Q: What sequence folds into this?
């Protein structure tokens, strides 16, 4: 049976821990990590906050030496050791992939940890790109302790595997400015 892709995946912050939250994808509710500064409506480069808003998913990147090519209805790209992402607001390649070595400030996509073994590229600050408004906002794999990110959204690797077949080119990630709604309580019959 073929699964339909989701139109919207919602992300809410936790009431008790602003650096964590919940990702709601249809009937699936997953704990997630958010930026070390929580959520923000006024994102700035280096602030460590996850931006509030709604973005499409542009594609998927993965580490072929660590994971098999993910099956997802998205454009899929293998990360190579020389892949980076420019985070220098004054550079003409700001918030874009760059080949390494690169002269301006950048983030390395080929990481020693497993965070970028599977990465969804979100369309945050991509059209038009506004210098200094934040770069490399991804949905990626979380640290084992669900520790905070530098501004991305991160989920445990098993949850990522469950999500990928449900995320397509029309799926949007909606980061809400508030806390997660309570789960509905079942009434006794």
A:
């Amino acid at each position: 049976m073929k699964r339909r892709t989701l139109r919207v995946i919602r992300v809410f912050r936790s009431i008790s821990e602003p650096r964590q939250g919940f990702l709601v994808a249809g009937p699936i509710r997953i704990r997630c990590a958010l930026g070390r500064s929580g959520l923000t409506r006024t994102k700035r480069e280096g602030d460590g906050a996850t931006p509030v808003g709604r973005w499409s998913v542009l594609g998927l990147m993965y580490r072929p030496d660590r994971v098999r090519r993910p099956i997802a209805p998205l454009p899929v790209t293998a990360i190579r050791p020389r892949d980076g992402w420019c985070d220098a607001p004054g550079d003409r390649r700001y918030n874009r992939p760059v080949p390494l070595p690169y002269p301006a400030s950048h983030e390395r996509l080929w990481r020693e940890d497993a965070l970028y073994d599977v990465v969804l590229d979100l369309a945050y600050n991509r059209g038009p790109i506004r210098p200094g408004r934040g770069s490399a906002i991804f949905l990626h794999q979380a640290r084992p302790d669900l520790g905070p990110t530098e501004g991305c959204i991160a989920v445990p690797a098993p949850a990522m595997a469950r999500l990928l077949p449900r995320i397509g080119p029309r799926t949007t990630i909606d980061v809400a400015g508030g806390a997660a709604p309570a789960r509905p309580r079942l009434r006794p019959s």
Helices lie at 157-163.
